[in-house]
Amino acid sequence: MSTVTTGVADFAAALQSDAFRRDPYPTYARMRAECPVYPAPQGVWYVTRHADVEQALGDLRLSNDRERMTGALVARDGRMRDLSRLTARLGRVMSNTDPPDHARLRGLVNKAFTARRVEQLRERIQQVVDRLVDDALTAGPPTDVLTAVAAPLPHTVVCELFGIPEADRDRVKEWFRGLGRIHEDIERAEKVVDEFEAYLTALAARRRAEPGDDLISALVTAQARGDRLTDHELLSTCFLLITAGDETTTNLIGNGVLALLRHPDQLARLRAEPALIRTAVDEIVRYDSPSQAIVRVAAEDVPLGGRTVPAGDLVYLFLSAAGRDPDRHEEPDRLDLTRPAHRHLGFGHGPHFCLGAPLARLETELAIGTLVRRLPELRLAVEPAELEWRPNPLQRRLTALPVTYTTVTIPTVRERK
Questions:
Q1: Contact criterion met (CB below 8 Å) for 70 and 363
Q2: 42: helix, coil or strand?
Q3: What is the tally of helices (H) and strands (E) in the chain?
Q4: pLDDT per residue as tens digits for the range 309-322
Q5: Nearest 10 degrees: Cα torsion 52, 54, 57, 58
Q6: What pLDDT is stored for residue 279 in this prediction?
Q7: What pLDDT shows up at residue 94?
């Protein structure tokens, strides 16, 4: 086993640097080469090799239980106490439970959130994308891809999926923004949770009285059949599903467009072969996922990568570092839309594999495919060095993605029909 070299004394500090924020992948490469299971201070471990991350994601001894995770986080940083109090209100949803509760909750949601239901959204999502691109073309370049398409698309789709009335969507959008700044203003976030919880309670009550063809109605129906979904679990599950995919999909679209702009040969290839987008989304996720890492806590001593993680320690699993592992992916730093569909870990692995992956893939496919088709000579409107990234080492998110393009009119899919 290799050890940390003199030149890299503390990867924990490196993860907070401006250089890492701009481009984390050179740091990941050093971590994989020098200490792939790295013992950071205060009982924290960083895991960066594909094989180790994959093993860890499937190891139930590395727990995602909310109470265990909260205890570990608060023990290391007392400032996490207020945040943990807030997250505790969201209840025991599938994303922060271990088996057997996880299997029960996920099974109930699977009945409502089916692949068939997602695929039925294809035409409607394309209509939303076309409208957003129409608006961008009307306004003219430069266009911020995030505010013009990437952010409003998943927000609109999730609102329709849950049957949130049009009149309420601006208010829901403001709640999303408040929750997105949860680490910055706990007091404001608690007020948002109060308001959103009250809103979802009222909406669920309406769906019990008058069910519709939406996810809340499907979850209420499961509850009515006695499938052990409690009122608190119903609200927590709705909260999770409504909020989880919104910002992640936004940034997957943004990171994907940027990756194509930085690889003009692949952009040209996609423009010449539009059908590539159906499989290219997984390459985009592998190449630069917005979900850089997820956290687990060791429920007992766990062997991992030739080391032993002690019980109670936190384990940061760097999905994006695994996606650039040369032992798993040939020429991993090169974007290749024709790359064979080798398994990546961008949507997770094991029992907590991302339930919303099919919807995220579909939204990203239609958004990027349409932007490439309808915006000729698409290119960055600023120098790459001018792009700003948000300061969160667990997520890779641009603050804006300004682009420019040739202003010609290309018909939408509906118009060509």
A1: no
A2: coil
A3: 20, 10
A4: 999 999 999 999 99
A5: -110
A6: 86
A7: 44
Between β-strands 62-63 and 293-298, what pairing exists: parallel, antiparallel or unpaired?
antiparallel
Q: In whole angstroms, what is the distance from residue 223 CA to residue 217 CA? A: 10
pLDDT, greater one: 328 or 351: 328
CA dihedral 380, 386, 387, 392 (to 10 degrees): 170
Q: Check: CB of residue 321 under 8 Å from CB of residue 38.
A: no
For residue 303, the cross-strand partners are: 308
Q: Tell me which H or E stretch contains 317.
A: strand 314-318
H or E element, residue 26: helix 25-34
The token duo for 360 is: 């995220």
Whether 56 shows a pLDDT value over 50: the answer reads yes
Which pTM value belongs to this model? 0.87
Q: Which of 236, 252, 245, 238 is nearest to 286 (CA)?
A: 252
Six-digit token pair at 92?
């025991």
Q: Taking all residues of the chain, what is their mean pLDDT, rounded to a whole number?
A: 84
For residue 120, pLDDT over 60 is answered with yes
Tell me the helix, strand and coil percentages in the chain, rounded to 5.
Answer: 55, 10, 35
Q: Which long-range contacts (CB under 8 A, 24 or more apart) does 225-230 make?
A: 227/108, 227/111, 228/104, 228/108, 229/105, 229/108
Which residue in 340, 342, 360, 372 sits closest to 289, CA to CA? 360
User: How far is the C-alpha of 218 from the C-alpha of 240, rounded, in Å?
Assistant: 15
Question: Under a CB-based contact definition with an 8 Å cutoff, are residues 22 and 29 in contact?
Answer: no
Assign 141 a pLDDT band (cuts: 50, 70, 90). very high
Cis peptide before 142 (omega within 30 of 0): yes
| pLDDT for position 13 | 84
Q: Cα dihedral sign for 131, 137, 138, 139? A: positive
pLDDT of residue 182: 61
228-258: per-residue pLDDT in tens?
566 777 777 777 777 666 788 999 999 999 9
Q: Identify the residue whose tokens are 């998110």.
A: 397
| Contact status, residue 115 vs residue 211, Cβ threshold 8 Å | no
3-state secondary structure at position 48:
coil
